[in-house]
């Protein structure tokens, strides 16, 4: 059976990009083949959906080429013996997760200290195995795995950007932990930009600037978080520029996160901004409904609790900001369930929780959305929903289309009627236009976030 699976994997690896293969097939194994039913073991629940949707046909073909006709593919999570408990047994403060990659925990202590006293700044809880992969982040995760395989090569520097609470810190620290798990001798340092700045200023005041520079020059992997905090800090920027050039010249891995692209950060030197995107830029987007459900199911399994699918779907539908807020509402629901000695779904049905972050369950009408968008862009709803082709009016109208689709799940024909356009194809174009602009236009992101607050505030 092992030889069959080895051959199947080899064929799959030749069929799909290396990054995808590394992301989705690492840690899988063939469990059973019985009368056309093939059971495949996976390391965590978040891989199952992707394998089912994207790779079932590829797997079936690979099995057929190895003389196995597949009638049905089944996936089961392997490992993880921690028993589940009923939600009414959950403590008010959920226990610290125990299912953390053991090799990472052995390599790093809770303080981020490594053997020999080197302080990495890493949190051992952040691993790739407990990072939930979805349509909002799968490309970034694929790149992260490539970096773990070959640090300092293709994706160097690795620039990761996106709004708050989407998992940037988790993902980049996971890269550091995985690299140390492979080679504990590596010098890996995770530092928020605010810490880099503070340490640099203190070093200058103490006439220890050279020591500061040498500390960073000796690194194998440098991870800088929240790079946008370098704004208006010219001396720190110059120092980072020098450190970047030295590490890059030595093929050392550089990883940087930010809430926006380098050229959209005020006062960042053009030379530095251009260097930061040499390895490509990758963003984390807001999770869709299915992604949020997967995140919550994975979290429930991770801490060993049971929660009804209906309760998960309720949270996924009503928390519309980011993953951090989603997990916060999840923890609050479990705490109330314990306090009331009820199941999470019973708590929701009795009205004991009311998620308010990013939308809550407040009823909103199409008219309210249109009024809020129009007011934000300083025009009347009638003007915004006219046939005007003036750029700023057209943009506001497209934002309204986008929000009506995303917030109220309205069909494109209904949106067309609300905003006064001819047909649903115009609406589809407008929504796609805003979706595309949101990937790079951080001003638009901020505007839509502000409008959402007005809608649900």
Number of helices: 21
Order of helices and strands: HHEEHHEHHEHEHHEHEHEHHHHHHHHHH
Low-confidence spans: 80-111, 357-361
The outline comes out as globular
Mean pLDDT: 83
As a percent range, the share of strand residues is 5-15%
Helical percentage: 40-55%
Strand arrangement in the largest pleated sheet: 5-6-7-4-8
Q: Largest sheet at a glance?
A: 5 strands, parallel
User: How does the helix and strand content classify structurally?
Assistant: alpha/beta
What value does the Rg take, in angstroms? 25 Å
Structure in a nutshell:
With 457 residues, the protein is α/β, with parallel strands linked by helices. The protein has helices spanning 2-15, 18-25, 46-54, 56-64, 102-107, 138-149, 168-182, 193-205, 209-217, 234-249, 270-276, 289-303, 309-318, 323-340, 344-349, 366-376, 381-384, 391-408, 412-419, 424-438, 442-456, and strands at residues 29-34, 37-42, 72-77, 158-161, 188-192, 221-225, 253-258, 281-283.
């Amino acid at each position: 059976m092992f030889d069959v699976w080895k051959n199947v994997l080899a064929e799959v690896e030749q069929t799909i990009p290396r990054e995808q293969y590394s992301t989705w097939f690492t840690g899988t194994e063939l469990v059973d083949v019985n009368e056309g039913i093939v059971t495949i073991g996976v390391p965590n629940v978040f891989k199952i959906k992707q394998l089912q949707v994207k790779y079932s046909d590829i797997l079936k073909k690979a099995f057929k080429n190895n003389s196995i006709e597949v009638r049905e593919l089944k996936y089961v999570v392997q490992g993880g013996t921690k028993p589940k408990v009923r939600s009414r047994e959950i403590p008010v403060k959920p226990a610290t997760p125990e299912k953390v990659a053991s090799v990472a925990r052995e390599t790093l202590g809770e303080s981020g200290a490594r053997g020999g006293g080197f302080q990495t700044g890493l949190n051992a809880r952040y691993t790739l195995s407990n990072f939930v992969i979805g349509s909002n982040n799968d490309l970034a995760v694929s790149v992260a795995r490539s970096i773990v395989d070959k640090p300092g090569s293709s994706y160097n520097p690795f620039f990761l950007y996106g709004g708050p609470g989407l998992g940037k810190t988790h993902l980049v620290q996971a890269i550091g932990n995985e690299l140390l798990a492979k080679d504990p001798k590596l010098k890996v340092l995770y530092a928020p930009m605010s810490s880099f700045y503070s340490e640099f200023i203190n070093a200058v005041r103490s006439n220890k600037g050279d020591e500061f520079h040498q500390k960073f020059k000796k690194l194998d992997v440098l991870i800088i978080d929240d790079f946008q905090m370098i704004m208006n800090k010219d001396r720190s920027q110059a120092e980072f520029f020098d450190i970047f050039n030295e590490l890059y010249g030595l093929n050392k891995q550089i990883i940087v996160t930010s809430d926006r692209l380098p050229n959209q950060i005020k006062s960042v030197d053009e030379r530095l901004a251009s260097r930061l995107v040499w390895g490509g830029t990758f963003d984390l987007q807001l999770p869709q409904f299915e992604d949020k459900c997967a995140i919550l199911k994975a979290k429930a399994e991770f801490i060993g609790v049971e929660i009804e699918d209906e309760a998960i779907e309720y949270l996924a539908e009503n928390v519309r900001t980011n993953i951090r807020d989603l997990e916060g509402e999840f923890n609050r629901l479990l705490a109330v369930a314990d306090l009331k000695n009820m199941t999470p779904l019973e708590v929701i049905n009795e009205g004991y929780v009311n998620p308010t972050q990013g939308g809550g369950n407040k009823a909103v009408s199409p008219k309210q959305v249109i009024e809020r968008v129009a007011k934000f862009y300083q025009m009347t709803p009638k003007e915004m929903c006219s046939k005007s082709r003036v750029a700023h009016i057209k943009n506001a109208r497209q934002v309204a289309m986008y929000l009506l689709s995303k917030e109220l799940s309205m069909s494109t024909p209904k949106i067309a009627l609300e905003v006064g356009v001819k047909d649903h194809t115009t609406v589809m174009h407008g929504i796609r236009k805003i979706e595309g602009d949101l990937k790079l236009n951080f001003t638009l992101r901020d505007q839509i976030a502000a409008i959402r607050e007005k809608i649900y505030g």
